[in-house]
Amino acid sequence: MPSAPRAHPELVGSPRAVWCGVLHLHLLAAPLAGNLEVDSRHPRILARLRYNAHVVAAVILTAGASSRMGRDKGLLPVPGDGTFLSRLALSLLEGGCAEVVAVVGAAEQAFRSAVERERLPVRLVRNPDPSRGQLSSLHEALADLAPRTPRAIVMAPVDLPLVAPATVRAVIAAWARSGAPVVRPSRSGRHGHPVLFDARVLVELRAADLSVGARAVVRAHASESLDVEVDDPGAFEDIDTPDDYRRVFGIGFSAP
Question: Residue 178: how many CB atoms within 10 A of its CB?
């Protein structure tokens, strides 16, 4: 019989993340809060609380070859709002994630230059062989995060850069209330991103077959998992080809 979901009482009812213009404070559970860390490098995140134990970490998967797009999707521009990587990373942080790890592949140096140029609070981890599939990138991220023992991870492919911070907040809040092992946004029966995995299933993700991916873990916990209904087209809008890009943004993009 599957174990009963475990709620996280230290998070339930805790103050929401505060967003006031350029000031963004993560104000989650007081017992987990540590020193105030001022981050003046990025205009959208000037201050945040530094946790003694990270609560929720975000992982962005952007190591793929982007063969159908023709260039690295993470570096594509979101018209008027940075790149796919920066838009998604800032939404995850504004939505309540304590840190963001982005897994990159062969274009590591280009991503490092972009992160430095945009002053993004993102840590880059390289997947030496992304051809093994998306789960191999998640494994690289989990290895990087292991010393900081997150209570949960929120996983998002860079193909969906328009996810709203409110969706991230809704997913995290549902996990905090329920302790569900897997939480996903949904709309009319369709599942979207990001997907949250509780810490207790991370060992299963590490052991999962690379050829099957994280789906095996999601299926194994289907009866315990939680879907969160959201009204956010960005959680379901996969931008994978130049035609997708044109359809979503109304314009094409220039060659690199």
Answer: 19
